[in-house]
Amino acid sequence: MDGSSSKVVELKPHGDVAEEDPARRGGPGTDEADDNEKAPRRSRRVASLDVFRGLTVALMILVDGAGGEWPVIGHAPWNGCNLADFVMPFFLFIVGMAIPLSLKRIPDRGRAVRRVVIRTLKLLFWGILLQGRYSHAPDELTYGVDMKHVRWGGILQRIALAYLVVAVLEIVTKDAKIQDQSSSGFSIFRMYLSQWIVACCILVIYLALVYGIYVPDWEFRVRNVDSPNYGKVLTVTCGTRGILDPPCNAVGYIDRKVLGINHMYQKPAWRRHRACTDDSPHEGHFRNDAPAWCVAPFEPEGILSSLSAVLSTIIGVHYGHVLVHMKSHTDRLRQWVTMGICLLVLGIILHFSHAIPLNKQLYTFSYICVTAGAAGVVFSVLYFLVDIVSLRYVFAPLQWIGMNAMLVYVMAAEGIFEGFLNGWYYEGTNNTLVYWVRKHVFVKVWHSTRVGILLYVLFAQILFWSLVSGVLHRAGLYWKL
Where does the chain cross the membrane (predicted)? Predict the structure, then answer.
């Protein structure tokens, strides 16, 4: 708990910070009628931000659980943008949008920085624990990792980095004189011009490294025991610069040099690339003439791509500034929708003109524009429906997930609860409780593995955890960082 006794500021999962404890809904100017009240007004929480967070967690569960059977919602093998590729940018956008709301009431910069650093360390701890291969849930009933092969990158690690950089930037650059000022039009860009200058510097550094670094030939040892090349050392021929193809890009080169190839993700999405398998975009047996890089590791949450990912968070911060400084619903929506559409159009033009392809693995500039623009438009729609039209009951399940997102992320998206259930099996570990429910309650009823798994994810995971979150919300119980 920070600050006065009247507020409880909490860090929601993935590094984003909500305005207040759910028992005391906080939020600047969510009701235009309140602006004319003479008595001290009781601010309300921006419910649409919780709904958007819950929607993003639900999307993560959906694409992780059903993406294998439905490639159209799974990650694109390389260039392109499927449904799963919007999840990470949406989280970063939400993180950024919540930062101005949470730091607005903390005038002491030292105290604010301490809080940001502590929460960053917590996110890093959970990220390495859940995605560093220590946890083997839900499929394997074991745990532990050889430190020689621990994965340093991951979703929470990337969000921790973006949160740390952008939150400290907000603390350092914010001016107490403008915190309570109203704004309209493009003046809000001038108020935070220094942050946009930093964003431009990050973009220039990223582009300079991606297109300027020379990538030499490299080699790796095959660690997949199912591969006929297991244990062999394979060589990937590059000797080039400025290439955005899978084997010879600067993003992977920096990660191999800094993180070490043993500490990178061992099953990247590029394994489903058409150069690797005839079943693309499905995962299948590798082609006989598949290049060596098809079985090589690649870190989708690596160093250079995480640097550009900071830009998604900075765009989210701008949306948070609009929420803080603009008191009219119409002004807010005009600003948000205009910026969102402009970003979408710019990203699409860059991709289809073949200037900069959409690529989640490299976190390219066109990918930033399209996903941040989509986040802005989606949030604007939710803000209109939830905070203006007040259709909160319709979106209540997503709001419950959003208010207890860390719990749902760990238990559902990371499979900890399902791993616990898999501990109950009959005769063999391949006949677990989860397997029985999925097979007999969903797959056999619909006579389709694809449909059965999709329904299992929707009902036995997303709907189930929304109800659990609702019960915990009624009890006032939340997982805080």
Answer: 46-66, 86-104, 116-135, 155-172, 193-214, 303-324, 336-356, 362-386, 393-412, 453-472
Would you state the structure tokens that stand for residue 469, as one six-digit string? 């979150």
- The pLDDT value recorded for residue 177 is 52
Residues 288, 278: Cα–Cα separation, whole Å? 10
Q: Which residues of 363-372 are buried (b: 16+ CB within 10 A; e: fewer)?
A: bbbbbbbbbb
Half-sphere exposure of 135 (CA within 13 A, CB side): 19
Would you say the pTM of this structure is higher than 0.85? yes
Q: What is the pLDDT of residue 427?
A: 78
Instruction: Produce one character per residue of 101-119: b if its CB has 16 or more CB atoms within 10 Å, e if not.
Output: bbbbbbeeeeebbebbeeb
49 and 97 Cβ atoms separated by less than 8 Å: yes
Nearest to 14 by CA among 154, 171, 170: 154
Q: CA of 36: how far to CAs of 27, 31, 329, 383, in Å? A: 16, 10, 15, 21
3-state SS, residue 17 = strand
The pLDDT of residue 179 is: 56
pLDDT for 328-382, tens place per residue? 899 999 999 999 999 999 999 999 999 999 999 999 999 999 999 999 999 999 9
How distant is the alpha carbon of residue 346 from its chain centre? 22
Query: What's the CA gap between 156 and 441, in Å, rounded?
Result: 33
Give the whole-angstrom CA distance, residue 374 versus residue 372. 5
Amino acid letter, 158: R
How far apart (Å, rounded) are the C-alpha atoms in residues 128 and 278? Answer: 34
Output the pLDDT for position 6.
33
How would you class 231 by CB atoms within 10 Å of its CB: exposed for 0-12, middle for 13-18, buried for 19 or more? exposed
Closest by Cα among 344, 403, 352, 464 to 89 = 344
Q: What distance in Å separates the CA atoms of residue 32 and residue 20, rounded to the nearest whole number?
A: 20
DSSP structure class, residue 141 = S
Q: 234 φ, ψ to 5°?
A: -105, 150
> Which among 292, 243, 300 has a CA at the least distance from the CA of 269?
300
Gyration radius (Cα) of the chain, Å: 23
Which value, to the nearest 10 degrees, does the dihedral of the CA atoms of residues 82, 88, 89, 94 take? Answer: 130
Instruction: Tell me the C-alpha distance between 226 and 347, whole Å.
Output: 39
- Please give the backbone phi and psi of residue 431, each rounded to the nearest 5 degrees, phi first: -125, 70
The span from the CA of 481 to the CA of 475, in Å, is 19
According to DSSP, the residues that pair with 235 across neighbouring strands are 219
What residues are paired with 425 via a beta bridge? 432
Q: Which portions of the chain are predicted below pLDDT 50?
A: 1-43
What share of residues in the chain are helix, strand, coil (percent, to 5)? 55, 5, 35
